[in-house]
Amino acid sequence: MDRIKVGVLGATGMVGQNYLRLLENHPWFEVTYIAASPNSAGKTYAEAVKGRWMLEEPMPDAVKNLIVGDANIVYSAKGKCQMVFSAIEADKDTIRRLEEEYAKNDMPVVSNNSAHRSTPDVPMIIPEVNWEHAAVIKAQRKKRGWTKGLIAVKPNCSLQSYVTPLHALQQAGYPIEMAIISTMQAVSGAGFPGPASLQLIDNVIPYIGGEEEKSEQEPLKIFGKIVDGKIVPTDSIKISAHCNRVPVLDGHMACVSLKFADKKPSVKDVLQIWSRYTSEPQKLKLPSAPIPPIIYREEQDRPQPRWDRDAGRGMAVTVGRLRPCNVFDIRFVGLSHNTVRGAAGGAILMAELLKAQGYF
Q: pLDDT by residue (tens digit) across 201-217?
């Protein structure tokens, strides 16, 4: 199978670097174009990130000598790639405009950014949860006059640690009425260079700008339905979130308490549901799909970021500490790798899903 030529916008940043790492030797995609800010444009990629390569793995040889384009100049990508992954760092209006311009020029856009997450005809996809939302792309293209272009986005990184386990329970016939979620989010989620060491050493910061709003609103769209060419968020569940920055390098953790709307499952029921859960990415055998998508750790003190964030090549959700809740019905701890599943890896899996569904 001929690989699809892809570009990475914002390739010099932390998320962009993870895209390049994860796309190295990918069976379906080949990186043939990279772009970043005007300051990096015109340099080789190795020159542009000299002294700023932030990953443990070495820079992929295939991208070292690629000339960095200006992400603001859309026509520079024409003929060099067939679709783009977007990790642009700019204000939301700029990102929104640029992503629409790339799509208008026949390039599907799979985005890590938040600019289009609330756009009604743009699917915000966790592939194991709401793969059906890709169907709204037909209405998106019709409304905007696009033929090959599209925009699809991934949700906030911290959602990955608990939305799939919640969805599995709802799919099994246990609708959730309320959720209280407290996240402990790694410093890499703040991008490079992140919080100053004097802020985080011997400390926890109980505020991350915009995170609580995203944690409370984005799952409603993910659990919503397509109506008249738009995704209508659900109103059946209420979420209250507390978001904290903690001195951990990678791995977002969530402590979750759930109240069910009707019947409630036993602890045994929940364990069976999670252990048996599989979904569309696994059925389609997508290259980045974790098997299984949900891993349960029985130890009392797991999951832990250091030991569990890389489960399923960093793409699985690890859960543990499932027990009854004294206020709601059940409670548990979830963990996911924020810069893999929560960022570049989640977007790559979404692109694999869209390709398998025939959208490009």
A: 999 999 999 999 999 99
Both 200 and 256 in one domain: the answer is yes
Tell which residue, 14, 18, 114, 10, has the closest CA to residue 71.
10
From the number of C-beta atoms within 10 Å of its C-beta (0-12, 13-18, 19+), residue 318 rates as buried
pLDDT for 87-124, tens place per residue? 998 999 999 999 999 999 999 999 999 999 999 999 99
Q: Does residue 108 share a domain with residue 76? A: yes
- For residues 25, 248, 194, 22, the Cα torsion angle rounded to the nearest 10 degrees is 10
Assess whether 17 and 133 both reside in one domain.
yes
Catalytic residue among 116, 133, 167, 252: 252
337 tagged catalytic: no
Q: Do 147 and 171 share a domain, yes or no? A: no
Whether residue 325 lies in the annotated active site: no
What is the C-alpha to C-alpha distance for residues 299 and 50, in angstroms, rounded to an integer?
42
Q: Which domain holds residue 51?
A: 4-156+343-356
| Domains: count for the chain | 2
Residues 101 and 168 in one domain: no
Catalytic residue chosen out of the listed positions 81, 116, 133, 157:
157
Residue 287 neighbours by CB under 8 Å, 6+ apart = 26, 27, 28, 352
**Do 141 and 261 have their domain in common?**
no
DSSP state of 65: T
Report which of 30, 40, 32 is spatially closest to residue 10, judged by C-alpha positions. Answer: 40
- pTM equals 0.97
